Each structure stands twice: as structure tokens, then as C-alpha cells.
Amino acid sequence: MTQQEQAFPNTEQKTYGASAGQIPIVNLPTGNGPSVRSVNLHTPTTKGGTAEGKIQFREQKGPFQQLRSLLNSMLVLIFFIIPFINYQGRQAILFDVNEQQFHFFSLTLWPQDFTLLAWVFIAAAFGLFFITVFWGRVWCGFLCPQTAWTFMYVWIETRIEGSSNKRKLLDKAAWTSSKLIKRSSKHSLWALTALLTGCGFIGYFVPARELYLDIFTLSGSFWVSSWVWFFAICTYLNAGWMREQMCLHCCPYSRFQAVMFDGSTKTVTYDAARGESRGPRKRNQTTELGDCVDCNLCVDVCPTGIDIRNGLQYECINCGACVDACNQTMDQFGYQSNLISFISENELKGEAKPFWCSARFVSYGLALFTFIIVALIDLSSISETQFNILRDRQSLYREVGMAEIENTYQLRIRNKTKTMKRYQITLDNPQRFILMTPSVIQVSAAEQLEYPVTVKAKLVDLDHGREVLQFSIIDIAKPEQNVSQSSSFFSPST
């Protein structure tokens, strides 16, 4: 008997298509036969809460929820703490928009270096895809900021308004002084959390130590305060009001994740062959029903309000709450655990294969490895000095003295370090070309210097017309740090 026949023992099945078994059609029983619920054909539940459709999911304890809480807490703490870490007298990680610099401890990136961040983000994306091949949407369930802040807001709500059942009753209750106090307390704490989150995010772009003081004393600048309040409002709406709607309708990852799944992907899965036909029963009662006691806890604890027993659904964020809830029930009835578990389709069929045999493992792994190497190469090639040459556009050349030719250039030299630098300017052919301006210059930390120079050559030494001239900028303290760029030297074309 197939898995589907076990799940629908009293139904007639037909197939349509090119070959048998391609599209199963199930004739649902009517009249006094088994109900739709008993044959596991629930309509997907996205209105798992009150009559208004608000999902009030239950708090659940268990190994997966302990792991999720630990990871979410670490994520939130790291998010708030990082801006307060100092390094060499300044904020260690800072996107300085005004100065157009990104400080990462001793590394300073300028807009010209931001290709490195692009490689890092691409590598991170392929890393996410690589993990998804094996563990499904574990990012969504255990590390996504939307999940972390949603559970944080629900924790605040539960401490003030009580369990999910009490919250549902409170939603329907008339407005009394008790309800007003609870709701105002909850929303006040939500708003404070949102404001702290806004400060935490903007603290990566402006110095965090001054930011919090400025915001809470109402002395911040207009634009900084506006951005803090903008992200605070977004946090309040996303985590407090929209919650699962972000996962169901706004997050693009939920829509395209399925293309990365294969038979070896471990996802939260209900074992229908073992669980059906489901139904309530007393403990220690002998029954021909499956192991699912139809307690509905897997739906009650789901933050997106779905019924995992309906099969794989894009709304599932793989948080494992239903796994913990079901195992709790299985323990109470003395049944084997993991009726709902993180398991792959192949494992359910008893056809588990080594993960390295997957084509997706090879392709995503190679892509991830490639972009990590590209990022490391780009990082190693970043220079402490940026150098550009602009020619004088008013004249190509000047004839001076005894048949001599001069060309004028504007050297643009940027010191990308946090210390003052002294540079030596050199030419690739000093026998023919003479630098008429001082060759040693000093550039302050993080400064861009515009330095005009004049180069002279004798007409008899020139190939008339245009020649290539190379300038080099050498760090006197660290000669290995040098950059070069070519320009043109013009002369009469005979």
C-alpha cells in the first residue's frame, strides 16, 4: 500500500496524464463517511487566531525552541553591542556616510572598494542557498531578524496579556480599564523596543554613543532623527502588527526556496503513513487509528498559522515549534517521537543518499567557494593609496626655453589609512622626462590631495606627437605600498 493509500484508505483514486500515477485525483467521501478533517485534507490555515484573522500562536517549549531562543537572543545582543565596540579610538564598525567610508576594525573601505562588499554579499547568498539544499528554511526559523523580533514582541505580549487563549478572549472583550491598561502597556513596550531598534540600526551609520543620547534627549539632527524614527516605525509595524504577513506575502525567499529543495532536503515534515488516520483517543486506549491524536497543537504553536499535516507549504519557516509540540504529545501518549520532525523525503521512503551525491551540493558548493576566493583576492589587492591623473584640458603642451616641451597634470592622491603618509612621486623614464615640482609630498590621514605637477622634456628626445608617461606614487615608510598610472605626454607632431 502506498503512502497516499495509507493516508486515504476509504477513497477511490484515479490518475490522469501521460502515465499512471502522474496526477492523483481523490474522490472525497460524503454523507456518513469520514469527514474531510479525518482524511487530512484541511484547508491551509492562515487564520489561526481570532475571528478577525489575527494569529495568536501559543508559546512552546522544547529543544528546538530553546535553540531558536538562544540563537535569536545572540543575534539581538550582537546587533545592539557591535556599534559600541571601539577600535583604535573610534567605532570599530561604522558606515560613515558623510565621509564616504566604511570602517571595519583596521580596514577602511572607500566607495571604490565596495566591489568587495558585493562579493561578500554574493558569497553569503550562495551560502544561504547551500544550507537550504540540506536544511530547508532554517535561516527563516532560527536566524532571520523578522523571526527574532516577532518572537520578542510575542514574548512581551504574553507577559502582559497572558497565553494565546487569554489574548484571543481579550481581542473579543469589550474595552474596559483592564484591557486599556494591558493594551497601552504592551504597545508602549513595543514602541520602546522599536525605538531602540531604530537607534541600533542607525548606530551603524553614525557614532552610536552620541546617537542614543541625542535621540532620547531630543537633540539629534533632523535627518538622523527622521531615519531613526522611520526604522522604529517599520519595526513596530513588522514585528507588532504584520508578523506572519511578512513571511507569507512580502519575503521573496519563501517564494523561490522550493526550487532549491530536492529529495534529500531536511524540512519539517509530518509522517502521514504513521499518523493517519488521525483522531482523538484516551491514553492507553487500543485503537486502529494512526499515531496523530488530532490535538491541533501543531497548528496552535505555528507562527504562520499553517497545518503541517497538509504537507510541505511555502509558509512554513522551519522553526520547529510543531516538532516540539508534537513530541510533547507523543510522550504523553507513550508513542514514538518524531511524528513531525526534520526529515527528508528520501529518509521517509527509506532511500536516504549521501548529501555529496546531490547535484545542488556540487553546484552551490562550487559557487560559494568561487565567490569566497574572489572576495579574498579582492581584499588582498586593496591598496592603502588611491591615485588618479587628470591632464590640463586648456592646452596639450607648452613650448618653453631652448626647444623644450612642458605638460601639466593634476594628481589626485587619496590616503586611505588613518595615519599621515609621505609619498615619493617618480616617473618611469627620468632621463627623458623631468619632474619640475617637488617630488615628496605629505598627505594627512583619510585626505584626498589635489597636487598639480609639471613635466618637461627636450624636443629632440621625444617621439613627436604623443607618448605614454607613467607616474608612480611610493609610500616612503612602506615602499611595497605603491600605485602607478599612465597618462599621455604630448609634443608637436613635426
Automatic annotation (TrEMBL):
Membrane-spanning residues = 67-85, 116-136, 189-208, 220-239, 361-382
Biased composition regions of type Polar residues, renumbered to the chain: 30-48
Q: Where is the 4Fe-4S ferredoxin-type domain?
A: 282-311
Q: Which Gene Ontology cellular component terms are annotated?
A: plasma membrane
What's a Gene Ontology MF term here?
metal ion binding
Q: Which UniProt keywords apply?
A: 4Fe-4S, Electron transport, Iron, Iron-sulfur, Membrane, Metal-binding, Transmembrane, Transmembrane helix, Transport
**Transmembrane helix as a keyword?**
yes
Q: Which residues form the signal peptide?
A: none
Pfam families named among the record's database cross-references: Fer4_18, Fer4_5, FixG_C
Q: Which Gene3D superfamilies match?
A: Immunoglobulins (2.60.40.10)
InterPro entries cross-referenced by the UniProt entry = 4Fe4S_Fe-S-bd, 4Fe4S_Fe_S_CS, Cyt_c_oxidase_cbb3_FixG, Electron_Trans/Redox, FixG_C, Ig-like_fold
Q: Specify the superkingdom.
A: Bacteria
SUPFAM superfamilies, per database record = 4Fe-4S ferredoxins (SSF54862)
Q: Where is this region: Disordered?
A: 30-50
Q: Which PANTHER family match?
A: FERREDOXIN-TYPE PROTEIN NAPH
Which named protein is this? 4Fe-4S ferredoxin, iron-sulfur binding
Species of origin = Shewanella denitrificans (strain OS217 / ATCC BAA-1090 / DSM 15013)
